[in-house]
């Protein structure tokens, strides 16, 4: 194929060698993983879209997209049929990861974005593409309160080992069960969000970071997400990766039979051989004191009052 014209390459804020380097980073990470995480490669067709300048870049050739080659990558004009929205798109019987530019300058951050979207492309063939979900209940005060307690217990589980870790996991699951008893119709939606987005985020972070870096990242992520005005569309980006990380600390091959509607916390409970207390709800209320429950409830009451003004 002919070399892309100079006029096209000059129109974009990215130089072609920069795009090539980004794709080579992705390919190297996928080669290093070599399908070990999920039994298949994350080296999928990717389309980086510069909407402002109407340019697309890819790691795969495509006649339908009208791409021309530049060494190891391909580029062309953004066609009308490509919606510039992050996510999987089917083109020529293949699923492509469409990702708008610009990307973060930090290598780990940008590769996490690419591999997160790459995992979404694989989910349908792994039967991990969930039914639609909505978690609007997580804007309610009590739901946020028990979710925050679950997160605090998960944070403690990350920091501890042995029996202290098991107790923190037990507390997290008790807090989780309490919340879901209050909002019993929403359990499936929470599970599907954690499988869909939580595991995509876990996969990206797992491949891009060392184990110790991943643990620190998850702790930092909690502090970041804690301040969110709404948890509806973000809670799974912490809870999903943390539960998956805890599963990785066991000898179970948990990914092998994972389903799109599974409760990943139940998998953790089983992997750690945890027997929940007879009265989960009383246990949750009593244990909440150890996680600054009164302070957290105060935060949520203040938030509720501010929103109702």
TrEMBL record:
Top-rank taxon: Bacteria
Entry protein name: Uncharacterized protein
């Amino acid at each position: 194929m002919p070399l892309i014209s100079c006029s096209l390459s000059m129109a974009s804020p990215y130089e072609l060698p920069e795009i090539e380097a980004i794709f080579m980073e992705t390919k190297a990470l996928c080669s290093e993983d070599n399908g070990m995480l999920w039994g298949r490669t994350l080296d999928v067709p990717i389309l980086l879209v510069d909407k402002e300048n109407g340019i697309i870049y890819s790691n795969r050739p495509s006649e339908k997209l009208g791409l021309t080659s530049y060494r190891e990558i391909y580029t062309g004009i953004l066609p009308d049929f490509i919606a510039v929205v992050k996510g999987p798109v089917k083109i020529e019987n293949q699923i492509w990861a469409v990702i708008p530019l610009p990307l973060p300058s930090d290598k780990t951050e940008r590769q996490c974005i690419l591999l997160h979207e790459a995992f979404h492309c694989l989910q349908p063939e792994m039967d991990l593409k969930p039914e639609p979900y909505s978690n609007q209940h997580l804007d309610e005060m009590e739901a946020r309160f028990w979710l925050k307690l679950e997160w605090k217990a998960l944070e403690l589980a990350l920091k501890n080992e042995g029996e202290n870790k098991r107790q923190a996991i037990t507390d997290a699951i008790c807090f989780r069960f309490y919340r879901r008893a209050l909002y019993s119709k929403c359990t499936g939606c929470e599970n599907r969000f954690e499988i869909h987005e939580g595991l995509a985020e876990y996969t990206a972070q797992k491949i891009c970071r060392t184990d110790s870096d991943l643990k620190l990242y998850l702790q930092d992520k909690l502090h970041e997400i804690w301040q969110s005005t709404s948890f509806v569309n973000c809670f799974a980006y912490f809870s999903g990766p943390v539960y998956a990380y805890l599963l990785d600390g066991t000898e179970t091959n948990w990914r092998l039979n994972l389903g799109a509607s599974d409760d990943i916390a139940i998998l953790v409970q089983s992997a750690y051989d945890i027997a929940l207390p007879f009265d989960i709800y009383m246990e949750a209320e009593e244990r909440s004191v150890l996680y600054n429950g009164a302070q957290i409830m105060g935060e949520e009451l203040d938030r509720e009052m501010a929103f109702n003004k």
